[in-house]
């Protein structure tokens, strides 16, 4: 008999879903209407869960699965899983470390370039026929140079480091903040986030959200200033979104490039309405290459855990 796996969110790579279905009895939880009836019948059979990174799994659902051995997170952020609870039950929680680093860093730079050069606004200008209507170069404002911008990186983990390498190639002086200075890095370490914002033209958020909710608040945005750009490819909740809306509306910062939001998929109206904000629908890791690599890591973690081994990527055991 195949072990039972509960899949909490869609997997977009056909080879990965095929393999998952071949090896396991898979229940797509997100397609089940009567979840209570499903749990009453199948909860005790479930040995593995596949969850999304930012969507995770609720503690309440873990509590309903008495024989759960592994939560294989299809992502690197485990902030949406109660790690202490999983640990207390000996449930392996695994992540796809290393698989998405390059793509997420690429999108961070993409968002910064798009924001400071006004690429999306420029595209809309041409697409909507405004270039023909208003051919004078004064019709579209000048943008800002990316090369050489002072970049401040918040969170110098795998993604932060990959962003730094890319920004350095554009001649950007780089400084960072984190819980501590990293001895293997020669970039400037600025322990205080407000000070880092003050010394940066662009602040790029790459930190895990576990203990950092709302760290980017009005004071940080004020310090970033009216010529500064905020880029977030990490988690929406790192930012106090009310303060961000206020800063964008009042022109207290020059612009923002956001892949993540506090209450996805809901985005504050004021951000939608503002041309200085460039947005994506939480898709920094959404390439065929990365999602295939992530999916394969999820399959490996399930296979290891469900054959009684400690998964290589386990964070809890
Ligand atoms: C994914 C993520 O969008 O890795 C993470 O933590 O948030 C993203 O890579 C998501 O987890 C896909 O499941």
Automatic annotation (TrEMBL):
Keyword NAD: yes
Organism per entry: Polynucleobacter wuianus
InterPro entries per record: D-isomer_2-hydroxyacid_DH, D-isomer_2_OHA_DH_cat_dom, D-isomer_DH_CS1, D-isomer_DH_NAD-bd, NAD(P)-bd_dom_sf
Homology family: Belongs to the D-isomer specific 2-hydroxyacid dehydrogenase family.
Protein name: Dihydrofolate reductase
Record keyword NADP present: yes
GO MF entries: glyoxylate reductase (NADPH) activity; hydroxypyruvate reductase [NAD(P)H] activity; NAD binding
PROSITE patterns linked to this entry: D_2_HYDROXYACID_DH_1
Pfam families named in the record: 2-Hacid_dh, 2-Hacid_dh_C
A Gene Ontology term for the protein's cellular component: cytosol
């Amino acid at each position: 008999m195949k072990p039972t796996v509960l899949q909490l969110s869609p997997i977009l790579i056909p080879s990965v879903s095929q393999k998952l279905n071949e090896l396991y009895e898979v229940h797509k939880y997100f397609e089940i209407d009567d979840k209570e009836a499903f749990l009453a019948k199948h909860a005790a059979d479930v040995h593995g869960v596949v969850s999304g990174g930012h969507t995770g799994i609720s503690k309440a659902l873990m509590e309903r699965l008495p024989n759960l051995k592994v939560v294989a997170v299809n992502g690197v952020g485990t902030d949406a899983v109660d790690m202490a609870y999983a640990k207390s039950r000996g449930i392996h929680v695994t992540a796809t470390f290393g698989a998405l680093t390059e793509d997420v860093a690429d999108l961070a730079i993409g968002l910064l370039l798009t924001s400071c050069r006004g690429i999306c606004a420029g595209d809309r200008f041409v697409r909507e026929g405004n270039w023909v209507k208003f051919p004078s170069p004064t019709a579209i404002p000048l943008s800002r140079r990316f090369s050489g911008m002072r970049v401040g990186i918040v969170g110098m983990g795998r993604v932060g480091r990959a962003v730094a390498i890319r920004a350095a190639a554009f001649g950007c002086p780089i400084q960072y903040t984190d819980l501590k200075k990293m001895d293997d890095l020669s970039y400037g370490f600025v322990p205080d986030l407000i000070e880092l914002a003050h010394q940066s033209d662009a602040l790029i958020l790459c930190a895990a959200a576990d203990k950092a909710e709302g760290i980017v608040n009005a004071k940080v945005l004020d310090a970033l200033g009216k010529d500064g750009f905020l880029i977030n490819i990490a988690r929406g909740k790192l930012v106090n979104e009310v303060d961000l809306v206020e800063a964008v509306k009042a022109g207290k910062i020059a612009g923002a490039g956001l892949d993540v939001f506090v209450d996805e998929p809901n985005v504050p109206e004021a951000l939608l309405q503002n041309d200085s904000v460039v947005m994506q629908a939480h898709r920094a890791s959404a390439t065929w290459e990365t999602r295939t690599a992530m999916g394969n890591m999820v399959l490996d973690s399930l296979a290891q855990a469900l054959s009684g081994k400690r998964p290589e990527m386990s964070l809890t055991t």
